[in-house]
Amino acid sequence: MNNSKPSKTSGVFGWIDQRLPISATWRSQVSRYPAPKNFNVWYFFGSLAMLVLVMQLATGLFLAIHYQPNPHLAYWSVLRGIQRDSRWGWLIRYMHIVGASAFFLLVYLHMYRAVMYGSYKKPRELLWLVGIFIYLALAAEAFLGYLLPWGQMSYWGSAVVTNFVTALPVIGKPIATWMRGSFVVDLPTLNRFFVFHVFLMPMLLLALVLVHLIALHQVGSNNPDGIEIHDNVNESGWPRDGIPFHPYYTVKDLFGVSVFFVIFFWFVFYNPAGWGLLLDKLNYTPANILHTPADIHPLWFFLPFYAMLRGVPDKLYGIMAFGGSFVLLAFLPLLDRNPIRSIRYRSVLYKFNVLMMAASFLWLGWIAHGFATEHNMVYGLHVTEVFYSTFLVLPFFNRQRTVRAKIIWLVLAEAAVWLIDVWMYSIHAHGWDLMLLTDWIPALYLLVVFGGALAFPALTRDAAKLPERLTAGGIFH
Ligand code: HEM
Predict the structure, then answer these.
(1) 135 CB under 6 A from ligand 1?
(2) Total structural domains within the chain
(3) Is 109's C-beta closer than 6 angstroms to any atom of ligand 1?
């Protein structure tokens, strides 16, 4: 089918369509866009993330109309002006708050899907990389927005994060002052955070999502089998395992939207603070520049990174560990070069490793949810090491390894982790007894992966043969 043929529609739409490729774009990108026929539930999250992006922009617009970016007025303009005095203001605000958490949840699931099905591999590396930039822009957007209600946690959270920058040698302090526009978080900080939050970052996010979708449609979607549908086409060039995106996936996505809305609006109407996870209880107290709260922590979606910052015993190394986790993500296409994309056809140990990526990330979040005790900090350090290991062991799975290679990987990895720990403990006064008590966490992880590969070679064997066509799909497969 020729997607670029002129419009046959008459009337006003026909007139516009002859001058603007609306129906041609709809055909090429939606109704005649071939999508693999086996998308499962994991493929809901991209479209849902787009929906939440639109909701955040719409609700944010109305919030910005009533909000006052001034330390004397901000808190009450939100708590009274928006929540009580403006019609439906409470609904708009709660949708925006629950929307922020929903956005992160959806994006985390969306990223994990890409990891499971190898969607970051050739030819989708750029699509993946743009995704990383989207995540960073989203994180910046959430951080900037968190200051705006000018509550205690808003204020001190921003103070802590802008303070972290001072750990950079020489340029750290000037950069922190420049970011805040002052020596402390104050009026200039609130003004600039407001402008960046409502203007700069949303534009950047929209632009990045557009590039993301263009890159996706350039190379086509991956799928749960990780098998390229464009490698097997019929006489007219249509992939044998492809179905038009519309109506098949528009209808499927609508089902996803309805389930999502049930959960989303349950939170909005019945539990907008989400047990203090979506909206910190301390933020119901106006910012007090003279009173530092006993425990300062970010919202749930940043907790794993907070555990890294807190666990690594040096501010600068902590920042490096935090930044390094994004470098690892960006380098995923280089670390995992195994030709098989989908986890379905990868070895048992590889599956375990991908599971541990998520488990260690959640574990880090759990640790940072607790108080900044020495115990929690030490666990934070060791689980950060496990999280890093789940990425750094990936090259091991790129091909079958000889016994000798497995022993070398095991010895080098164990030596590296013990050396790093001795180094970390020597620069900080954690008790050595606590170190020995907890050092087993990364050491055991590496032992399971490489020792397991040595003792049970079958655990490292990928599927001998991939199916030639997509296997039976469906929403719940
Ligand atoms: C605002 C945030 C985002 C939006 C709105 C978004 C949107 C989408 C949409 C609509 C798709 C196609 C449908 C689907 O596969 O679910 C997609 C695919 C994809 N996205 Fe995103 N995305 C976002 C963030 C990210 C992030 C943070 C990453 C990774 C770091 C990422 C990586 C990918 C990859 C690799 C694919 C292709 C998946 C496949 O074909 O299997 N995206 N995205």
Answers:
(1) yes
(2) 2
(3) no
